[in-house]
UniProtKB/TrEMBL annotation:
Family statement: Belongs to the UDP-glucose/GDP-mannose dehydrogenase family.
Top-rank taxon: Bacteria
Molecular function via GO: NAD binding; oxidoreductase activity, acting on the CH-CH group of donors, NAD or NADP as acceptor; oxidoreductase activity, acting on the CH-OH group of donors, NAD or NADP as acceptor
Keywords of this entry: NAD, Oxidoreductase
Alphabetized Pfam families for the sequence: UDPG_MGDP_dh, UDPG_MGDP_dh_C, UDPG_MGDP_dh_N
Protein name as it appears in the record: Nucleotide sugar dehydrogenase
NCBIfam families, per the entry: NDP-sugDHase (TIGR03026)
Record domain UDP-glucose/GDP-mannose dehydrogenase C-terminal: where: 318-413
Keyword Glycosyltransferase among record annotations: no
Biological process, per Gene Ontology: polysaccharide biosynthetic process
Length: 419
């Protein structure tokens, strides 16, 4: 059966998108190169936080299927590409997954098909990378034979207020007609669409959104570093400043910036700017500051361990919350990793508590997991609150018998040292 929609890449973006499309009544299938992802979904198991197994079951009942077979693309009306856009080992944009997906689509492209890229990338990706691969591989022309569009994804894992349906979505096309087809497609399950002038504007808008967060995180991180040097309580500063009802968007410092979007996307902007001879100075400064934070946490923890135990060697450190985001089961690029590595290198005995993560490996060493929070805190010399999961209630943390280094400004009590 020909599909209304085939989603390419069934990860944190592709699976929720498939769920939204299935709910709207679209005959939807997913194509992924990972046999593990596909067999898990076929067995009703979700690998994406925020999508429940029960929801996968509902999708399967409604006809959704996941496959590693590109034949599923045959006859599809719309194809949406949601593959990863990470970095090469040199820290440059890695578009290999987009290119791979483009070749698979090109081989099955048919006149009238709508192809949309949702992956985050630098301006020009749709026109200069995706379009030539699709056209050369199919012999068809975008804007004439098939429709090509870019629409960045704004999904916010763990956000219970804003979903795919009620978050305004930017849509753009390689021609006015391409954009019109993309608008018609998304309007079936997104309430409010924002038409960008062209694909480059839409691509850049996504980079601006995430870079805005990154730069502001760097600003408050540096504010925390300076306040520490000068004996000023940064959390009180932030509390006071955030009472301004206009012209101030609150951001909070932390042990570093994680995830596959916020620390990665600004690098796409930096690289694109550099390739065009433009030095994006704000970003260079932000990278430098954000990169300092895990070391700052390690230094603060080692000082605390020395105070409590005389020396860090053999001291017991408990990491509380190792995911990159609160109440989300995702450790990609988590700052807990460099923090744990720094503490282990200093000879500390590190364990962690996190209800969302069953295993944590650092430098090939498996970090022991504590099951019982209160017991683990009673046994530790120092606990470090790295992530503000809901289970870390302020009062419980404040009553801890061990010293607590709070990198999130959550806890109160005589044992608490703030970042
Ligand atoms: N995760 C988020 O919150 C978020 C939010 C907005 C935008 N984005 C962007 O969306 C894109 C996808 O991110 P994600 O978090 O869903 O990634 P992910 O790693 O969770 O999932 C990507 C999926 O694509 C599959 N894949 C990889 N190469 C493929 C190929 N050539 N063909 C088919 N499938 C392939 C992988 O097996 C994986 O299942 C990225 O560009 C990301 O920056 C992510």
């Amino acid at each position: 059966m020909a599909m209304d929609l085939v989603v390419i890449g069934l990860g944190h973006v592709g699976l929720p998108l498939s769920r939204a499309a299935v709910s709207a009544g679209l005959a939807t299938a997913g194509y992924d190169v990972s046999g593990r992802v596909v067999s898990g979904l076929a067995a009703g198991r979700s690998h994406v936080g925020g999508v429940l197994d029960a929801e996968v079951a509902v999708m399967l009942d409604a006809g959704f299927r996941a496959t590693t077979d590109p034949a599923v693309l045959d006859g599809a009306q719309t194809v949406v590409i949601c593959v990863p856009t990470g970095l090469t080992p040199e820290g440059l944009p890695d578009l290999s997954a987009v290119e791979g997906a483009a070749r698979v689509v090109a081989a099955r492209l048919r006149p009238g098909m709508l192809v949309v890229l949702e992956s985050t990338s630098y301006p020009g990706t749709t026109e200069d990378v995706l379009r030539p691969l699709l056209e050369h591989g199919s012999g068809l022309r975008a804007g004439e034979d098939f429709h090509l569009a870019y629409s960045p994804q704004r999904i916010d894992p763990g956000n219970e207020t804003w979903s795919i349906g009620n978050t305004p979505k930017i849509v753009s096309g390689c021609s006015a007609l391409c954009a019109k087809y993309a608008v018609a497609f998304y309007s079936r399950f997104v309430d409010h669409l924002v038409l960008a002038r062209g694909t480059r504007e839409a691509e850049m808008a996504k980079l601006l959104e995430n870079t805005y967060r990154y730069v502001n995180m760097a600003l408050v991180d540096e504010m925390a570093l300076f306040c520490h040097e000068t004996g000023i309580d940064v959390w009180d500063v932030l509390h006071c400043a955030a009472t301004k009802p206009f012209g101030f968007a609150p951001f909070r410092p932390g042990p570093g910036v994680g995830g596959h979007c916020i620390p990665v996307d600004p690098r796409y902007l930096t690289a694109r700017a550099a390739s065009q001879g433009f030095a994006f100075r704000t970003l260079a400064a932000a990278h430098e500051v954000v990169g300092r934070m895990p070391n700052h946490v390690v230094d603060r923890a080692l000082a605390l361990l020395t105070e409590v135990r005389g020396r860090p060697e053999g001291a017991r450190v408990l990491l509380l919350g190792i995911t990159y985001k609160a109440d989300v089961a995702d450790v990609r690029e988590t700052p807990a990793h460099p923090v744990a590595a720094g503490l282990l290198a200093a000879g500390a005995e590190v364990s962690y508590h996190d209800p969302y993560i069953a295993e944590f490996t650092v430098g090939g060493r498996s970090v022991p997991r504590a099951e019982n929070l209160q017991e683990a805190m009673a046994q530790a010399d120092v606990a470090i609150l790295l992530q503000e999961h809901a289970c870390y209630a302020r009062e419980a943390l404040g009553q801890a018998r061990c010293a607590l280094l709070d990198t999130r400004g959550q806890a109160v009590g005589s044992q608490v040292t703030l970042l």
